[in-house]
Every structure is written in C-alpha cells, then in structure tokens.
Amino acid sequence: MLNHLRCWSASAELLVNNAVWREEADACNRIGCRMYRIIEARPAGLNIKQFVIEAPRIARKQRPGQFVILRLHEKGERIPLTIKASDPVAGTVTIVVQGVGKTTSMLNCLEAGEFVLDIVGPLGSPSEIEKFGTVMILAGSVGTAMALPTAKALKDAGNYVVFVEGARSREMVVFEDEVREASNETYIMTDDGTYGEKGLVTAKLNELLSAGRTVDFVLAVGPVPMMRAISQVTCPLGIKTVVSLNSIMVDGTGMCGGCRVLLGDKSKFACVDGPEFDASQVNFEVLMQRNAIYRDKECESLQQFEQHKQEELGQLRAELAAKETELQHLRTEIDDLGTTSEARHV
Fold first, then answer.
1. pLDDT by residue (tens digit) across 267-284?
2. Quick check: helix, strand or coil at residue 200?
3. Nearest-angstrom CA–CA distance, 247 and 258
4. Averaged pLDDT for residues 42-53
5. Distance (Å, rounded) from C-alpha 76 to C-alpha 242?
6. pLDDT at 289 over 80
C-alpha cells in the first residue's frame, strides 16, 4: 500500500511539474519568446527591398491578399505590409518594402541575420478567387508584389490573366519574371519610357478596351490616384473592379478606427473588412484626405532619421540584440524546467 502511495505521489508531482512547464511554455509562446529572423534581404528596385522572414505560424495560414503588421522596436510604429509569398515548409513569409517613410527606410537598412521585433498576421480578408473569365490586373511598382499572389491564384483557378505593371522608370520595375509567369499576357509601362511602353497603366487599359477586349474582372493595386483613375474607366462600363486599399492602420483588428474607409454611405475598416473593396463604392477623395493627415509629420520624421541614420540604426540594432539575448535566456530556462521535470522521474 505504501509503495502504491509513493508511486501515486511521484506521478502527481510529475503531472504538476509538467503542467507548470507547459504553462510556462504556453506563456512563452503567447508573449513571444522569439523575434522574427530575417533569412534573406535583397534589393528589388529603387528604394525597394524584398525580405524573407521566419514566421512559421503566419506562413501556414496565409492566403492571397492578406497582410501583416510589423513593428521594428518597442516604441516603433506599426506598418501594414502585404504578404508576397509564404513557404509553410520552410516557415517563412516574403514581404516587399518601399522606403517612403522613417520606418520603411529603417527596415530597408536591415540585412539577413538581423531581427524584426513583432510581426502579426495574417490579417485581412483573403482575395476573392473564382473563375471570372478574363482578368486584368493593374499594379503600380511595389503594388506588383502585393498583386502577385492573387494573380497566381486567379490563373490557377482557370482565368486568363492580363497583367499590366506600371512604374515611374526602369529602376522601379520589379519582379518582371514572376509577373510573366503569373499571367497569360503581360505589359510593362513606365512614365518616362525608359522600359517597356511609355505611359500610365490606364493608357494600356483604355487601349485594350478600345480594341474590343472583353474584361470580366479588374484588380487594381497601387497608389490611390492610380486606383481611382482605373475605377473611373472600368466602373461606368460595368466591369467588376476591386481595389486594394493601403490606408493608415494601427492595431489591424478593427479596434482603433484608423483605417476607416467610406463605401457609399457606410464605413468599413480596411484591416478587417478589406483590404480589397468594390471600387465602385469607394470614396477615394475621403481616402486621400485621411492618408494625408500625417504627411507633414512623416516627412519631418524621415528628415530627422536621414540626419541621424547611423545613430538610430545603432540604437535599433543594440536594442534588438539585447532583446534576443533576453529571450534566449528565457527559452533556456523554460527548456531546463521541462528537462529537470522529466529527468526527476525517469
């Protein structure tokens, strides 16, 4: 009887210790006991950089059209970035960043082997994928990276995909090979004519429509004025047109209201209801006004960063290195707790 009680007591202690260890491990996962390592970082165009980042959970769940919100450091701003690709086996996601403000410019200074503090996702509603017929995708420069996963999915669904990529100049034309692979018909447009055809994406759109091409669905991804111009062409013709809205975001869960967009007389949140919306319903004027609210502050912040770039990058790298050391110690403590708990009763 005494031996049975001792065995029961030992088993109970093992269960308690294992429960404590599991609780600690779960807490570690919840609070984020690891940062997000940059596996690959390479230039993709003028002020445009592609990153492959270790994020296994996001990689397993991501679908075309969804995005992440990224934060570089504890006091950093949160920026939304569309997922260009994911590899569930490798546990990585690919994002493309154009350096237009302080945070994106700072991010583009990081290299493989360094870390990003936070990445949350996948966020937003996935793209609508079905067989429409002839699909036309019009993307402006870095918007090409955002449109690529949707283009691939639409082609796989049996659509005939016409992809029109626009950029200001040759240096900003990105992922041309991938665009050609993801589409049945490809056109490259540059504002200055240094590559492809000279003109805006709307010029090619008008040309194809004027030639009698039937288009069943249009996806526009890029600067707001470009998307508005496209919708002004397609919507009066009754062509179903979807735009991907990159409005200001903070939390990405619909709580802050910062990404509010007007669709007719209704308000929607780009982070949870979008980011893709029916172009015929979008109030582009209000969207542009909201996007311009912090423009002066953004320019001021970028100027200050450029003046103190090395100092700020040094602080960022030191902070991230210290954080990684702290998290390594925490992971080691939790692993040791689990090992000790199990070894004690072997």
1. 888 888 888 999 999 988
2. coil
3. 8
4. 94
5. 32
6. yes
Residue 181 one-letter amino acid: E
278: left (phi over 0), alpha (psi -120 to 50) or beta: beta
Q: How far is CA 191 from the centre of its chain?
A: 26
Report the number of secondary-structure helices (H) and strands (E) in the chain: 10, 16
Residue type, 270: A
Burial of 89: CB neighbours in 10 Å, binned 0-12, 13-18, 19+: exposed
Q: How far apart are CA 281 and CA 279, in angstroms?
A: 5
111-155 residue pLDDT tens: 999 999 989 989 999 999 999 999 999 999 789 999 999 999 999
Tell me the torsion sign for CA atoms 146, 148, 154, 156. Answer: negative
| DSSP E strands, 250-325 | 260-263, 266-269, 276-278
Sheet holding 36-45, edge to edge: 115-116, 36-45, 48-54, 92-98, 79-87, 67-71, 118-123
With CA atoms as reference, report the closest residue to 215 among 176, 159, 166: 159
Residue pLDDT, tens place only, 173-187: 999 999 999 999 999
**SS3 for 76?**
coil
The CA angle 327-329-334, to the nearest 5 degrees, is: 95
Query: Where do we find the tokens 């002066």?
Result: 296
Candidate ranges 12-21, 76-85, 232-241, 277-286; pick with highest mean pLDDT: 232-241
Smallest CA-to-CA distance from 149 within 126, 123, 171, 131 is with 126
CB 285 within 8 A of CB 248: no
